[in-house]
Amino acid sequence: MATGKIIKALSGFYYVLHEGTVYQCRGRGVFRKRKITPLVGDLVEFKAETVEEGYILAIEERQNELVRPPISNIDQALIVTSAVHPDFNSLLLDRFLVLVEAKRIEPLIVISKLDQVADEVLQEMENYKNLYEGIGYPVILSSVNDSQSIDQLQSHLAGRTTVIAGQSGVGKSSLLNSIDPRLAIDTDEISASLGRGKHTTRHVELYEIAGGLVADTPGFSSLEFGSLQLDQLSECFPEFVAVQDECKFRGCLHNKEPKCAVKAGVESGSIAQQRYEHYLQFVEEIYNRKPRY
Questions:
Q1: pLDDT tens string 4-23
Q2: Under a CB-based contact definition with an 8 Å cutoff, are residues 112 and 82 in contact?
Q3: Is the model more confident about 274 or about 181?
Q4: Is 129 marked as a binding-site residue?
């Protein structure tokens, strides 16, 4: 018996990576009876007579999992946003960050296409970089053929399992191709992470890139907050978490309550006004969400 990681699931087979070799395995019947589906990213115990004849015997506890794409044990999300075409959208970036934080996945922000912008936009992106780095998020400013940003990105990918998120056209596929030209991803066929467009990947697969594993699916296909509760939302804003113990009321929603440390931080400038406004928009969205039965 050995331990490995599922790197691909296709047509009832699970492909398990163990010490550099991939074993084709089936799941035990007991998984079906218990309605357990092995996921790409799962750490599993398996037994194999040959590389094509193996069985998964047990699945280790997952540190996290996503529904779309179906993948588990993710270390980080590479959130790609562009400075232009499409224009930088801080509200969408904050939405991605909340979704990632809610799953306890570390974000890595990449702002692409900086070679296509005027100096004032470049300065604006530098300001955003400073803002998000001040919160604690790593930010990489990227241009075409910029070896420095590629080196930075490679160092973040090494030894980790990464999923990619970002709207259509921000340059996710170009970024991966520049890291590892062997991928040769057709940039015209990669769709939005929102699930629209030509890209119709039917399975999730982890590729070995820059010493780590990267999911081939273009990130999240749903940007709704789903099951996220109001009292969980502020936990997805690290700068709120840092001061929330100073709020007068336990369970403060940082909205209409008096003597709120988060609102005081916004007034003093230690918490960005724009981030707080986005938080209030998300509060409203969750509050007005239709119940699911």
A1: 999 999 988 999 999 999 99
A2: yes
A3: 274
A4: no
In one-letter notation, the amino acid at residue 190 is I
Beta-carbon contacts of 140 under 8 Å, excluding residues fewer than 6 positions away, are 108, 109, 110, 111, 149, 152, 153, 156
Q: Do 139 and 79 touch, CB atoms closer than 8 A?
A: no
Q: Who contacts 101 (Cβ-Cβ below 8 Å, separation ≥6)?
A: 107, 235, 236, 237, 238
252 is in an annotated binding site: yes
Q: Does the annotation flag 236 for ligand binding?
A: no
Is 173 annotated as contributing to ligand binding? Answer: yes
pLDDT confidence bin for 217, thresholds 50/70/90 = low
Q: What is the pLDDT of residue 202?
A: 57
Q: Is 54 annotated as a binding residue?
A: no
pLDDT of 78 reads 93
Phi and psi dihedrals of 167, rounded to 5? -75, 170
pTM: 0.87
25 appears as a binding residue in the annotation = no
Say whether 247 counts as a known binding-site residue: yes
Is 63 among the annotated ligand-binding positions?
A: no
Is 112 assigned to a binding site? yes
- Is residue 169 marked as binding? yes
Mean pLDDT value across residues 202-226 = 79
Domains and CATH numbers, the chain: 2-61 (2.40.50.140), 66-215 (3.40.50.300), 230-287 (1.10.40.50)
Residue 269 among known ligand-binding residues: no
226 belongs to an annotated ligand binding site: no
Secondary structure class of 264 (helix, strand, coil): helix
* Alpha-carbon gap, residue 270 to 268, rounded angstroms: 6
Q: Is 168 marked as binding a ligand?
A: yes
